[in-house]
Each structure stands twice: as C-alpha cells, then as structure tokens.
Amino acid sequence: NAGVTQTPKFQVLKTGQSMTLQCAQDMNHNSMYWYRQDPGMGLRLIYYSASEGTTDKGEVPNGYNVSRLNKREFSLRLESAAPSQTSVYFCASSHSAQGIFTDTQYFGPGTRLTVL
Amino acid sequence: QQQVKQSPQSLIVQKGGISIINCAYENTAFDYFPWYQQFPGKGPALLIAIRPDVSEKKEGRFTISFNKSAKQFSLHIMDSQPGDSATYFCAASLSHFNKFYFGSGTKLNVKP
Question: Assign residue B110 a region: left if phi > 0, alpha if psi is -120 to 50, beta otherwise?
Fold first, then answer.
C-alpha cells in the first residue's frame, strides 16, 4: 500500500496563476483533509471531506477550492495564486465518516508550493 | 487567535533524558487531544492521543499527562533517543462541531 500520495512534490507559481494539487489514498478511507503548514503556525485545516460527494470548510478556506472526485481522490485548487499561499500543503485521510477528527489521520508527504 | 498554545518552540535534550512539551487550551469543549510526530520532509504521524476523561496515557516511552482543570496537557518522552529528534505537534478536536486545531510545534533535538 502506498498510503496517501500527493503530486506534485514541488511547484513554483507566479502570482495569479492557477494550479491543482492532487491527493489519493489507497486505504479505503472515508474522510480526507487538506492542511497547510507554515513556520510557527503548525498545520491549519483548509477543507475536509467526510465522505464522497461532501466537502466542508476548515479554518483557512479562502482562496482555495476542493473536489472529492471519488472515494480515493481529493484535489485542492488555487484559482489565482497569491504569495500568501506559499506554504507546504499536506493531504490526509482517516477511516471514519463520523467523528472524523477523533480518528487517526494518515498524512501524505506534502507539496512545497512557492508563489512568486 | 491560536486555539492550542504549544511550548517550547524548540528543545534540546541529552540522550537518556526526559523531554517535556506542553500545550494549553481555552475551550473546555475540546474532547480529543492527539500528539503528532513529524520528521523532516515527511508528513506528521500520530504518536499518541488522549480523551479528557483520562488523566494519563502511556505508550512505551511516550506519556500524555492531562490536567482538565488547568486546561493543559503535555507529552513526556522518557529515555529520549537521537531517533526521537523531530517536530512534535499537539492538537485538539471539537468533534461535535468538526473542528480540529494543531499547536505551533516543538522542534526536539536529542543530543547523543
């Protein structure tokens, strides 16, 4: 099992460009998450999906959109990238569809994004 | 406003010593408190977790101490090893509202 995979590993964008970060899990998990990690801030939840077909906002959703394409895949889209979105982005998944934040989350290796 | 405050930001401990990382929170509705460990270039991984009806939980060399009245919880790493060198994050969940917050992280360096 690969667990949670993310593509790309690194990306450099110019301000205003758009891009989609891809995430896939092969653990048959119901819930998936997107976080950003910034120095001194820990990880902050951007969006989550408790089941296929549902998505909800987290702590810092502005400037992002998500799609739960199917049970395996959860993508994060930046429509018009800004320097403030320079960060490391982590995707995670967990088994439960209920009480999702009391379940173990399994994280991918991250995508390092720089917006110039 | 950070929901979970973590300290210290960095910590240096000698091999064999005890590492202690502290977290504090304000919202008494938090009902699940995990700790995650992150190595450089990797995603975080769950280390140990506790619920507020328990004051202590131990798994091997790792112990969470939970003080509900003080609204604090801490991670103790006994007999710290160089392989424990990583960044540690506490977190707290408001499960009824589907809210989840990480602390700012503590970078632990265990000297051989």
Answer: beta
Residue keyed to tokens 């290796």: A109
> Angle at Cα B103 formed by Cα A45 and Cα A11, nearest 5°?
50
Q: Which residues of B touch A (CB under 8 A)?
A: 4, 6, 9, 31-32, 34, 41-46, 49, 89, 93-95, 98-105
Residues 6+ apart with CB under 8 A from B26: B3, B71
Backbone angles phi, psi at B108, to 5 degrees: -100, 130
Residue with token string 């700790």? B35
| Separation of alpha carbons A93 and B42, rounded Å | 15
Whether the per-residue pLDDT at B109 is higher than 90: the answer is: yes
Place of tokens 């891809």: A22
Q: Rounded CA gap, B11 and B105, in Å?
A: 11
Burial (0-12, 13-18, 19+ Cβ within 10 Å), B42: middle
CA–CA separation, B8 vs B19, rounded Å?
11
Which residues does chain A have within 8 Å of residue B94's beta carbon, measured at their own beta carbons?
101
Task: Give the model confidence (pLDDT) of A54-102 as tens digits.
Answer: 999 999 999 999 999 899 999 999 999 999 999 999 999 999 877 778 8
Q: Which two tokens stand for residue A48?
A: 């989550």
- The DSSP call for residue A53 is T
**SS3 (DSSP) at B47:** strand
A34 touches chain B (CB under 8 A): no
